[in-house]
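User: We ran a pulldown and think these components assemble together. Before we commit to crystallization trials, I'd like a predicted model of the whole complex to look at. Sequences follow.
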Amino acid sequence: MAFASVASLFERKRVEEALHQAQAELAHANRVTTAGQLAASISHEVAQPVAASVTNANAALRWLAGEPPNLEEARQALSRILRDGKRAGEIIGRIRALVRKEPPRKDQFDINDTILEVIALTRIELHRNGLSPQTRLADGLPPVQGDRIQLQQVILNLILNAVEAMSGPGSEPRDLLITTEKDEASGVRVAVRDSGTGLSPESVDRLFDAFYTTKTDGMGMGLSICRSIVEAHGGRVWVTANQPRGAVFQFSLPGEEETAA
Ligand code: ADP
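Assistant: Here's a predicted model for the assembly, 261 residues in total across the polymer chains.
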């Protein structure tokens, strides 16, 4: 998942606010990933505020070099550097907590509520991009047990990937549909369908590999982290083609009865 490039799709400040919480939780979510994946993910998370700080520092220097210097603009650029520096610090702080090996969480929660929370987090930004996510959420699903924040991260990654896949021309109408249903083995199944670029046969086997990306600014970590999280919850994740175009990313999780068994 390339947060930076999604951010450029949206009005930057708003999306930063909306995603801040979820992004900051990524370190926590990454508990289940391998050390290599974790290192890559950390550099990705920290690189973004650092790059923004460099841009803002350049801007501040330009405002100060003006005749006369524009102190107000320079002040604003410095405030942004301060904010981004704090954010990078927070991410590092969370990674420290992570290395201390907190015990895995075992919340019990409703997957539909979790999905609606993620949609609420992204809805304004999706609307601005001409996207209104549709949902078809099944009633009477068994509760899921595990780390709610990690599973929100999975859903968020899948939604933002779908948005990216539909950001180019030729994706209209842009359809984003999120569904839940009961899975055969008394669990739940979540599907995120888009009408975007879709999948090429040669890439389909590699999408979930760490560092596999087709984006110029991608890290190729999003789906790999999704898979780690889902598998750590006893589930699996897969992708198929959508009709007439686009992709369907799905994951299944054992329901509470099964987990308890
Ligand atoms: P990144 O977004 O940084 O590339 P991901 O692991 O999230 O990393 O995705 C890996 C690759 O999978 C992407 O570069 C893209 O080629 C493909 N992909 C992911 N989601 C979709 C989607 N909804 N539609 C088409 N291709 C996708």
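The beta strands are 107-109, 134-137, 144-146, 177-183, 187-193, 236-241, 247-253. That may be worth checking against your pulldown data before setting up trials.

User: Thanks, that helps.
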